[in-house]
Structure formats: structure tokens, C-alpha cells
Design a protein that fits this description.
- The complex is a heterotrimer of chains A (368), B (373) and C (245).
- Chain A has 368 residues and is an alpha/beta fold.
- Chain A has 14 helices and five strands.
- In chain A, 43% of the residues are buried.
- The chains are: A alpha/beta (368), B alpha/beta (373), C alpha/beta (245).
- At the A-B interface, α2, α4, β4, α6 and β5 of A face α2, β4, α6, β5 and α8 of B.
Amino acid sequence: MKQFITFLKKEFAHVLRDRKTLLILFGMPVAQILIFGFALTNEVKNANIVVVDYAKDESSQKLLAKIEASQYFEIEKMVISADQIEKAFQEGVIKLALVIPSNFASDLAHQNHAQVQVIADASDPNTANTLTNYISSIVLDYQQELTTNAGIPYRIMPETRMLYNPQLKGVYNFVPGVMALVLMLVCVMMTAVSIVREKEMGTMEILLVSPFKPLMVVVSKAIPYLLLSLINVAVILLLSVFVLDLPILGNIFLLFAESTLFIITCLTIGIFISVKTASQQVAMLISLMGMMLPTILFSGFMFPIENMPVALQVISNVVPAKWFYIIVKSIMIKGLGFSGIWKETLILAGMTLFLLVVSLKTFKIRLA
Amino acid sequence: MRTIRFLLQKEFKQIFRNKIILAMILVMPAVQLIILPLAADYEIKNINIAVIDNDRSPYSQRLITTITASGYFRLTGVNSSYDEAFGLIEQDEADLLLEIPAAFEKRLIRENENTLFIAVNAINGVKANLGAAYLATILKMYNNDLRLELVPSSNRIGSQPVIEVASSNWFNILMNYRVFMVPGILAILVTMIGGFLSALNIVKEKEVGTIEQINVTPIRKHHFILGKLIPFWVLGNIVFTIGLLISWLIYGIVPLGSLLVLYGFVAVYLLSVLGLGLLVSTICETQQQAMFIMFFFMMIFILLGGLFTSTDSMPEWARFISRLNPVSYLIDVMRMVILKGSGFSDVLHHLIVVAMFALVLNTWAILNYKKTS
Amino acid sequence: MDTVIQTEKLTKRFGDFIAANEITLEVYKGEIFGFLGANGAGKTTAMRMLCGLSTPSSGKATIAGFDVYRQTENIKKNIGYMSQKFSLYDDLTVLENIYFFGGIYGLSDKQLKEKSTELVKRLGLEREATKLVSSLPLGWKQKLSFSVAVLHEPKIVFLDEPTGGVDPVTRRQFWDLIYEAADQGLTVFVTTHYMDEAEYCNRISLMVDGRVEALDSPANLKTNFGASSMDEVFYQLARGAKRGD
């Protein structure tokens, strides 16, 4: 036990001495939470559009005024003809063009039917779609103002309630994702690299010939990162409660217990990678390319898993972050207890055990 | 110049000798470019809906059929109680639930109006919003259909003015999200490969100790930095080319604009990313540190680079950062040139900014590389 | 005699710690100068300053006539350096390392070709010439490092514990290389822990806690300290050391 503490001290000294890394270790979750909480939004706002108004009459002016009033658009005050639209798209200065034909008012007055043309830059299909929808609904509003008759018969009125996140804030989705991401990063990469580093520098051999059990060498490497990660969890939770106003509905102890489980899963992955690789660069590339991107993609916090091809949906099941993401969401936002997440917990625990056994086996073979 | 020749020979030999790294440099981006666009599909479809049908009338049946026929929704089941359906939401098996009240049909006809109750799992705000909007549209259609049947046609002829919105989508008529993602993801991959390799390189020499032997030679600092820059610049261009080939072969994306403009921009861009990497490399003492610092920048660059979410929608401070973010310029230019066929004059502004980054970062790296401590 | 290294009160501080304290010495052309001291005495620090790898905190020094503050790049043209830690490229072959460093020092293609063939032959590495350096045993790696350090025919070569961890036979061969080079007029500045090696030097200095405590020929030192061997001289001086391990 005394030996173990000596080792632990050495590892803590390594971690704490490297100020630059430490700064980033703690700066990372803060930066991520702030970026996700305040900068990233799937809403489309401030989109530059151009209006080509051939009509220039009262009706078209009214319609324009309505569009200008919306926060979604920034109307570029440029006068262009319809055939200059493509050029404007290519320069990337506008996202959408609205063309109001010269006979707009007269068509509306005499035929009760007028047309406006919307041309969207669909190289970004989502934005194009959203902007077209915004325009359509503004036009529809305008049309409704023109309509005088009320009292539509047989009305079905939907009453919609947004559960968990009535203001539809993005952070509800992102905070659990950021947690998974940061823990993954700190634990997998840091452990893998710090063990391989000792291998590369040759100091690992010194440790292994000491009377200390090799398993303990590895465990003492993992413990500082376990503690750092728990601090990170606390920081993320504090930020999300006090800065992002995202309350924790469920049991906080359960949340920490589950986080600890996930951290251990990640540490085991890190150890597994370190056993299998011989150079820091390879370990880094594997943990970066092999773990980070799948975590971002397959945990489901950026992109809906159900949209993916079936093969990828199957693959997503082996990504631990996916299960942790579900767990955090369930506890934090839905307020579920252990009964609601035992399945996911079991899967994570199973993965951890499996990885642990495999890496220990490989580790022993290496030594023999 | 002779010195640079020797440096280049050495770097290339080292790169080609390390088969694992080389394979990773070339294969990983390729694999990712094939897989990521398939996964990064933001289109909202397949929304799981649970229906609580308390009416069980022909009308409610018809409503359910209308919803499932729309193609957006997948019916997880018709439940008998709200609690049961709510359990599905808790388990993430349903995204949305629709409750049809008892005597829905009767009251609609008798009282001329009726209310349906919709509850949406709004943890993912975007999906919730769109799902609710889709459902509302479908309800409106259904409502209109009913009205047409119930109201005698003579009463319907009104004087309602109609403004039709004729919309057309340019550059991506099929509204394929992958077409949008592929150039962006390629931009990220080129950035990551260039950034990480260059960041790890000098610091590796420091860690292993070989830098001592270099520092004691009369080598010029800018020669040394150039010797590091060029090999990764070449590699970056190779990765980029592989990426373009994959986009063409797998996704059928052929750049509309000129390849010359594209390569010209990437050439300058790579210099800026490599400059950043080398700068980080000169600052750090260990590879672990370098990787971590680089990762921190990359993360911010990628998140604020407009790959997933438009930079226009960000608040002012974030838009300011994204103007200092080389990645956002590359993503922009890639999409402009590849998807819209933008020409040299369209990307000139981007090019100038990125060239400035390259100049500043590389100069800084040269100044920061100290042969004498 | 020509003086090729001249220092006066050369000092290097790291914060409060004085790694090298007012070192004053002169080294003459063609001499083998032994730089001795216990671990942590400040040998490597002092040597790094002389090589232009580290800027002194105070004091003066000229190497091959060039100032260590302002003319480090000129110094580097005139010296060779072999660091304590093996610092050639493990993932390059023997020949590739020779070509690379030769090229960096500005040797012509013809020179490179001649030198490398000659070097490989002299070191008896013909069969290993195209093997990766990482596959060589330590002793050969050290001999290769030395040869690379003198490849460009510098005026002075600095060797930092060149024979650490090497077997006695190889050590002997290594010193043959050193003698050979010194015979051709090369000045050798070498640190070592082996007292028998100290005897091979023309003159030696002994560092204790960052200071040079003794400087003379091995024979004179033994007489002055009334000792029968260099070991004893070293022990008498190093005993009072506070630093080191």
C-alpha cells in the first residue's frame, strides 16, 4: 500500500507539473460549454437575403416590411436584376433571393392570385429549407391579413406541449454530449498517451522490473485522470446549472456514480490502446481519430442516430459514449431514477469488464 | 537551399518509414470521408410518434393513417393511456405523442371545433420544433380535407386572395444533405491531418533529443521550419486529392468551379494550418502537451467553423472569433467552389485573409524556435 | 599554443539555482581536455553554454574565437557535439544519418560520398550501413555519433559522457577514435565519469557544485593532492559536494 501511494504521488506530480496541459484540461470543458451553450444554434438567424422588387407598389412594400421585421433575415440593400442572383450566390453574399414580379399588386387585386418567387442557395439544404419556410409563413401571414372572412368551420386545434425543454434550448441536448466528449478525451487520450510515453522513453521497463505489480503501475497512472475527470464533471454541472440555467432533475449522486462508471470505461479503453501501441503518435491518432469522431457522431448528440444507415446504427451500439449520453440525459433532464437506466448501466459495465480483461491478458503476455 | 534538400530527404524518409502513421494519414481520412457524411445527416425524418386514441372512430383512424402516410413519422404504437405513451418518451422510444380525445369525431361535428393534445420530447429542441411543425401541417391538411367533405361546395367559394410562393433550390436541386457535408468534412480532415502532424513533429524531436544535434549545427532557423513545413504541405495536398477523388467516386460530387482555384486556396490554407501546428510544436515540451493544445484549438475551430451550424446564426462574439478562424474560411471556400462554382474573384477575400494567417503564424513559429535556450 | 576555448567567470542560473558558477578555463588547440565532476555538478550545463545551445547568465567566453553571446551560429560552424543522450535519428539508417548531418553542415555531394564510405569503413559498419540506427547496439551508436560529430572537420568537438553504459572493449576503441582525431589537430572537450578515462586526457578540470575546483594535468593533480590515482583525487574533491545524487 505504501508503495502504491509512492507511485500515485509520482503520477500526480507528472500531471500537476505540466501546467499547459492542465490548463487545457480544465479550459476545455469550460470552452465547450460556452460554445455549445451560447454560440452554436441550429436556428437560422441573420441570413442575408436579397429582394428583387419589380413591383415597387404598396402591396410589395407591405410584404417587404413584414420580412424586414423578422429577426431571421438581413435584407441586403442591393439592387440587382434576376440574372445577377447566381453571381451573388457564388460570391456567397446572399443565401436567398425573393423576386416580386411587377404585376404583383394587379394580379392580387384582379385575379385574387399572385405569385412571388423564392430562390434559395441549396448548397446548404438545411438553411435553404428553413429560410424558404420562413418566407412562406411570412407570406402566409400577409395573405391572412388580406383575408377578411373569419369563422372557419370544423376547426381542429392542436395543443402542443414541449416536454423537458419548453424553450427549445440547444443546451439540453449539448450538455450531456459535452460531458461524454470531455470525459472520453481526458481519460482515453491522456491515459493511453501517458502510458505509451513511458514505454517510448524506456522508463516503463524500470517500473516493470520494480517489485511493484505491473497492474498497479497502470492503475496508479489512471487514478489522477479519474480524479481530474470527476472535477471536470463537477465543473460542467456547475456551469450548466448556474450559467446555462439547465437544472439537474434527477439524483446528483446517481449522476456522479454513473459518471464514475463511464470514466472507468474510458480509462480502460485508454489502457487497452496503450497496451496495443508502441508510439505516442500512433496512440494519439488512434484515440483522436478512432475515438473522438465516433463519440461525436455516434453518441447521437450532434446527429440523430435513426437517420443513419442501418450498418452505422449497429456500429453505434459499441460506442460507450452513446450509452452514457442516454444515461446523463435520462438523469439530468428527464429526472429518471436507476430503474430507468439500469439497462444502459449494465451495458457500460459489461464493456468495461470486457476491455479490462482483454487488456490485462495482453499486458501479461507482453511481460512474459 | 542545399540544406533544405537534406532536411526534406530526411523528413520524407522518416514519414515513409513509419508505416503505421503513413497508413493512418492516408487511410483514416478516406474512411472517415466515406462514413461521416452518411452519419452526419441532419435531416429530420423518422420521427417516432405514439398515438393515444381515446376515440377509436373512423375519423381518428383516418388521422392516424394520414400521419403515417406522410413519410415523416413512424408509428410506434397506438396506446390506450397517456402514462403508457409517456413511458415510451422516457425510454426514448417515442419522440412525440398525440392524444386524440374521447368522442373526438362527435364533438368536432357537434361543436364545430375540437382540440388535439400533442406532447413533444424537446430535449433536442430542433427536432422537437420541426416534428411539431410537421405534425401541425399534417393536421391542417387533414382538417382541410374534412372540411371539404363536410361543407357543401356552394358555401365554399370565397374571395380569399392567394399568394403563391414558388420556390426553387439552386446548386443542390435534390436538397441532398450529404452534398453539403462532404466538402465541409474534407476541409476538417485536411485541417486535422496537417495540424496534428505538424504540431507533433518538432516536439517529438525535442522529446527524443535529436533536436540537440540539429541545434548545434549552423542550420538557419527558417530553413529548419521550411524543411518541416514542406513535407506536411505535400501530405496535406495528397490527402486533399484523395478526398476529392472519394467525393467524386462515392458521392458523385465534381467541383463546379475551377480545380486551380481550389488547389490554389488549399495550398495557401495548408501553410496557415501547418504554421499553427509548428508554432504549437515550438511552444511545447512534450508531444502530449502539443496534442492537447492543438486539440483545444481544433475543437474550437471546428465547432465555430460553420460545419454543422451556420456561422451567421451565431452571436456577435462568436462571429468575431470565426473571422479569426482559418477553418471557417476553408469550409466556406470548399462549398463555394465545389458546389456553386465560385471563381477566383469570389474567394479572393478569403484567400488574402488566409495568406495573412499563414504569414503571421509561420513567422511567429520561426521566431519562437530557439536554437539557444 | 593557440587557445581555442577561453572562458571567464562563465555563469548560468536557473532561477535561484546556480548550475554553473564562474567557470574560468582555457583549452588549447589539439588538446584532449577532460571535464570531470559528479552527477549534477554542472558539467552538461557548462558544455551546453560552450556549444551555443544555452545562453550564459553572465561571464565571458569565446569558442574558436567567437563570442558565445553574439556569434553562436559561427561557433556552431566550428564545433561538433555529441550529447549525453543518443541523438541521431533512430528511424534513419547509418548512411542516411551521415548524409543528413553532413548535408546540414554544407559538405558537397562529392565530400559526402567520400566521407561516408571512409567513415563506415573505419567504424567497421559496412554490413550495417543500410540498417536502421535503432537496430545497432549502444556502443556502435556512440561511435557513429562521434563520427557524425566530427564529420565536417570542426576545430573542437564536445563529447558529453560519450562512453556511458558502453563495455570496456568498445570504450577502448572509442578512445582510439578520439586520439586519432586529436592527432589531426582536433581539440576534444570531453566529460566522463570513468577515472581511467580521465588519465587519457592531457589536462582535466574537476567541477564540484557548479565550480571548477581543480584544473591541471592528471599527473600534476595526483601530485598536488598526494593521491595515487585519479579516483582518489576525485573522491577528495567530490566528498564535500552538496548537490548530486
